Amino acid sequence: MTQLAESASADARALASTESGVVRGTDDGAVTRFYGVPYAAAPVGQLRFALPQTAAPWSGTRDASQRGFIAPQFVPSAAELEKALPGLDIAPLIGGDQQQGDDFLVLNIWKPSGAQTNLPVMVFIHGGSFTGGAGAADVYDGSAFARAGIVLVTINYRLGIEGFLPIPGAPTNLGLRDQIAALRWVQNNIAAFGGDAANVTVFGESAGAMSVANLLASPLAKGLFRRAIVQSGHGDMVRPIPVAQRLVAKLAKMMRVKPALDGFRSRSIADCLTALQKVSQPTAQIDLRNPDKREPAFGLSKFLPVYGDEVLPEHPITALRKGAGADVQLLIGTNTEEMNLYFVPSGVRKKLGKFLAHFMVKRAEPKAKEILKAYGIDDRKRRPGDAFTEALTDLVFRLPARRFAQAHKGRTHVYAFAWRSNAYGGQLGACHAIELPFVFDTLSTVSGPRGLAGGEPPQALATKLNGIWANFAKTGDLPWPEYDDNKIACTIDTGVVAPEVPFIAERFLP
């Protein structure tokens, strides 16, 4: 075949026809990629704070060879990032170098090259505290999944004030509604990319995993996916609408507008981002505790999904216990040292004293004193920051994830990820987000002196995890037993399968 003919063949492979029009991606002979494909109209003007609407059709062929816009968000400067996370390059995880713009309700697709059909589909929802992140961040590159025979989709959705603030007069949970709209787009269009709409697995990490957990419980998402993977997430990070509306009132006062749809629409997206940045500071005085005096986000984000609407009529755990999502196969797990990401680079784990540890936990958990004591904060042989970090890892991530597994009435598998990064002299360990480059087999994006995974992370483990995730999407099979009454979990990096060890904090919680 001549070079010209090869080029024409690759060009043809990179074309796909969606309901809105034809898109052209790129093809390297093994993987075809499409970036920035709209699944909904730009949420600006009268569509701002409105339900996601169908993307407008276009004529001709739309270029999908370059990464598209990301959702408006506050992007810290290099100096600010260095101050918060000294010595750590997190750009591959957050995609902060990508351009923001109006037309950001887009998705990205990786598929095996060639005219294949009925391939399993995986849809990934990025994290970022419900205020940041991007579906096309480097660590989420879907090429390895495509080479494994998967059609991999990543999405953007509305964030912060635009997506997770229950403004009176506007639909609630707009970020979740965007995600549901993207999943509906997949149902209607993924066959054009070789995918099987009847075999969709939705997965996410951190806030993306919390989103997946919420979708599992949502009646509006029923039937849109067959399997779900929840990485470092669960269904507890939600607020009742009346509690979240305290944040509405606070922001409206800051921006000098009425706490209603017209008030927030009268301020630009840039104005709202400025207010979001201010209200997200630890010094911002606002009580977001639930009626039980617990703050479900433990201060990690003031913006959370809400329940009490048509998206989440009741708390996700309550819904699961009543059978919501029972027809969906669930894989859920956490990393063993989640909070190290927040407290090791910042020096908090090393320097924190007992008084401040008690104060910080007490703001979110009424039994802070008893819990920290049980984790050994009074032990003179260890630092208070160690007890603090370990307790919060269990309170914020590990224990609620296991409770979510216990509430799910359908087939459930549980994992733990314990591989320890050697970054920060080995102190970063099995921190939050460390499993991502292994799941996506993108270790090169986070390796090196400033990388999350440190020096020379094991490629064999990335090959293993990517294969387990891909096989689960294909068949639903996993190489360890279900979680059922025996509470069997797999430490997925070592392959050790055993009944879960009870969490210290569990005996102090209702």
From TrEMBL:
<dbReference type="GO" id="GO:0006581">
    <property type="term" value="P:acetylcholine catabolic process"/>
</dbReference>
<dbReference type="InterPro" id="IPR002018">
    <property type="entry name" value="CarbesteraseB"/>
</dbReference>
<dbReference type="GO" id="GO:0019695">
    <property type="term" value="P:choline metabolic process"/>
</dbReference>
<protein>
    <recommendedName>
        <fullName>Carboxylic ester hydrolase</fullName>
        <ecNumber>3.1.1.-</ecNumber>
    </recommendedName>
</protein>
<dbReference type="InterPro" id="IPR050654">
    <property type="entry name" value="AChE-related_enzymes"/>
</dbReference>
<dbReference type="GO" id="GO:0005886">
    <property type="term" value="C:plasma membrane"/>
</dbReference>
<dbReference type="Pfam" id="PF00135">
    <property type="entry name" value="COesterase"/>
</dbReference>
<keyword id="KW-0378">Hydrolase</keyword>
<dbReference type="InterPro" id="IPR029058">
    <property type="entry name" value="AB_hydrolase_fold"/>
</dbReference>
<comment type="similarity">
    <text>Belongs to the type-B carboxylesterase/lipase family.</text>
</comment>
<dbReference type="InterPro" id="IPR019826">
    <property type="entry name" value="Carboxylesterase_B_AS"/>
</dbReference>
<feature type="domain" description="Carboxylesterase type B">
    <location>
        <begin position="16"/>
        <end position="477"/>
    </location>
</feature>
<dbReference type="GO" id="GO:0005615">
    <property type="term" value="C:extracellular space"/>
</dbReference>
<dbReference type="GO" id="GO:0003990">
    <property type="term" value="F:acetylcholinesterase activity"/>
</dbReference>
